[in-house]
Amino acid sequence: MRLSALAKTAGGSFAAAALGGLATGPAVQSTWYKRLRKPGFQPPPKAFPIAWNILYSDIAAVSASTLDTLHDRGDTDQARAYTRALAVNLALNAGWSWVFFNRRQLGPAAALAGALAVSSADLTRRAGAVNPPAGIALAAYPLWCAFATALSTRIWLLNR
Questions:
Q1: Engineering a disulfide at 60: which of 10, 14, 142, 150 sits with its beta carbon 3.0 to 4.6 angstroms away?
Q2: In this structure, what are the phi and psi dihedrals at residue 76, rounded to the nearest 5 degrees?
Q3: What pTM, to 2 d.p., does this model score?
Q4: How far apart, in whole angstroms, are the C-alpha atoms of residue 114 and residue 65?
Q5: Is 30 in a helix, a strand, or coil?
Q6: What does the DSSP 8-state code read for residue 39?
Q7: What start and end residues bound the annotated signal peptide (predicted)?
């Protein structure tokens, strides 16, 4: 994996994490968030930054490897398509935090989480088509996003 590719994908992942964190950080300490009814299957608060740091690192590494392989094969069209899919995915990822925590729109946040889960599955499919072990390495991401969709949806239903 080329350092230049990793720097780009890590930069994108870090930007998504930082933008999402701007909305999340203050909100999780707010009275609004503390008063929300949450399901019993919600992990402890400390689990979220651990899981997301691992996932963002995974996204960056798998994406860099996938893009390098595509460029080495001379498949620039597929590399551009993967880059677009990654950009959409990271925008959805950061956007969820703003819709949920900043705008406090629980229903739209649940829908956005679902879109993120679909986008994550697509990104994983694309990486796996280029390099099956890379797809396997990224498989935790859509699984976590599917869980986040279930969690977001349940919070919305409990607080309507």
A1: 10
A2: -70, -30
A3: 0.95
A4: 26
A5: coil
A6: -
A7: 1-18
